[in-house]
Amino acid sequence: MIPVTSFAGKTVAVFGLGGSGLASCDALKAGGAEVIAADDNAENVAKAAQAGFITADLRTVSWDSFAALVLAPGVPLTHPVPHWSVLKAREAGVEVIGDIELFCRERRRHAPNAPFVAITGTNGKSTTTALIAHLTKVAGYDTQMGGNIGTAILSLEPPRTGRVHVIEMSSYQIDLTPSLDPSVGILLNVSEDHIDRHGTIEHYAEVKERLVANVQAGGTSIVGVDDGYCRDIADRLDRAGRNVVRISVKNPLASGIHVEHGTIVRTSGGARSEIATLGGIGSLRGLHNAQNAACAAAAALAMGISLDVLQNGLRSFPGLAHRMEQVGRRGNVLFVNDSKGTNADATAHALSSFADIFWIAGGKPKAGGITSLTGFFPRIRKAYLIGEAAQEFSGTLGSVAHEISRTLDVAVEQAARDAEASGLTDAVVLLSPACASFDQYRNFEIRGTKFRELVQALPGVKPVV
User: Coil, helix or strand for 451?
Assistant: First the structure.
């Protein structure tokens, strides 16, 4: 835990009592603050009370004594309308912040030079965060990983010399962190997302920009420049005198880091050097993962990690569970768990990474279905359709070989049989549903775990090494 000493002797309201909210309550109390906990969900309020926190309806109490409102990132700050607790705070002149803001204040008070790597972007945040954490561990750092990737930041160990915090940040979290100042800030990409929470894509991009615009003095801003929003952001940072490292996987760069035929290349002042190779690293397969790896490499170099350690770290990266996770091999057939592919855009990354695919898809369908994936259909040798989306996907696939398997266990058995019988050198049985899991599974993790168990129970399947 990171005790929050910056509010010692003061009263702080905490609204939103999920994982990060309760961690904030614990950290504030440990640092000497009085905490008033609240939530719109009565069950969450009851849990906070059972944990020993004072609870109250913030609609009925006086806000005069509150030094701050710590808001959970899932609670609307601006759009579609500010939450009532935000309006109450503004009326009372009380600052509204999040748990990562509390971390930033503690870092500045106690260890301002401790490494702090913050990662954001529309896509690829979690993989890049996990990869950087892996690289820093291989390099010998005491590594703390958290934020949007799953572990509340205040549940981690406190900042100190030799300890690096690698933190994934959503746009919601950035919005609640006005003094965000990482030593290394990474913006992977910007595409349309969360417009319901930010109003326009321009405002969404502006929020993302804050993470790299406010890197502390002497720090490094790393920006993927393969989309127009990020190119403009990198140019603005340059004009502001920031230390900017541009990243591209689509075009060579005169200055920055780009990827050429599976090799990460650094260029500067006409000089060119090869940093690392990605060939044969299954956990980093695909153009999207090349961007993740290039950004992670740039962060590693900014922290002084050697090229040998970087290459060894890339090779040993196991990947994230349920994201292009290689769960087994039988002969020439590779089994890949991409259960996190819950929409067509995410599944496009998976389909683009293989040539001979026996594709398991379906679940609770989302708007648009899989019509945007037609360009990848030539890669599909056969599809196995499950869940509510099966009939709809069957209509979209048209002449592409497919059958309606209905359930995951049947689909795995059929796909494994057909892939092995195909005689293809690099056959891949890919679970990338392009759907939510909620028709048959409570979440994508449970669906992916079931797939892994089914594959590993098949005769002759061996772990991927």
Answer: helix
